[in-house]
Amino acid sequence: GESVGLHLPTLSVQEGDNSIINCAYSNSASDYFIWYKQESGKGPQFIIDIRSNMDKRQGQRVTVLLNKTVKHLSLQIAATQPGDSAVYFCAENNSGGYNKLIFGAGTRLAVHP
Amino acid sequence: GAVVSQHPSWVICKSGTSVKIECRSLDFQATTMFWYRQFPKQSLMLMATSNEGSKATYEQGVEKDKFLINHASLTLSTLTVTSAHPEDSSFYICSARAGGGQKNIQYFGAGTRLSVL
User: Fold this and answer.
1) Which residues of A touch B42 (CB under 8 A)?
2) Beta bridge partners of B91
3) Residue pairs between chains A and B whose CB atoms are closer than 8 Å
4) Which of A44, A58, B26, B69 is most deeply buried (CB count within 10 A of its CB)?
């Protein structure tokens, strides 16, 4: 759905731990999803994507899980490193409809040594 | 691959002046580019979709005469903030769409921080 909110939720983890960032989307017609990472003062960086005909996709140290039943998306980061500290956004797309990305509110990941 | 360059990265201007921001796809052709605005600690808000060779499509509430978009080539889109005022101060980010079919991967520029005095 549309992104709202003035305060980003923060996830604090210890270096080396696994991180799980969650995202709820609103449009059941969305068929494509992307996770982006945004560091302070920079543009979003593509991390991983997943189509709606899949429920899991793995990349390097990252895994995206999609649960269409409850319209939930998660990003798992293995062995979190200080360089992973950033704001993470999920984005949904309806290729048969408006075909533009709708961004979630974002989650700030803070990695502590 | 899939590099998007945005310029300038930071601009300060006086109220009433116009500012142009450029967005270039460096290693791929992008028939569609997007312009977003982002306020501190908030998400990206789509302003408009820029299509090469045609008029931009603006989101509801975005003034097309205020934010002029030109997409003259497959690698360049520009956003001009006309008669800028302090309330236009924000972080503006462009993206270019790569891939076809159902994939709508957008690659983003580094953003432009606009400060209007």
Assistant:
1) 3, 5-6, 105-106
2) B38, B113
3) 66
4) A44
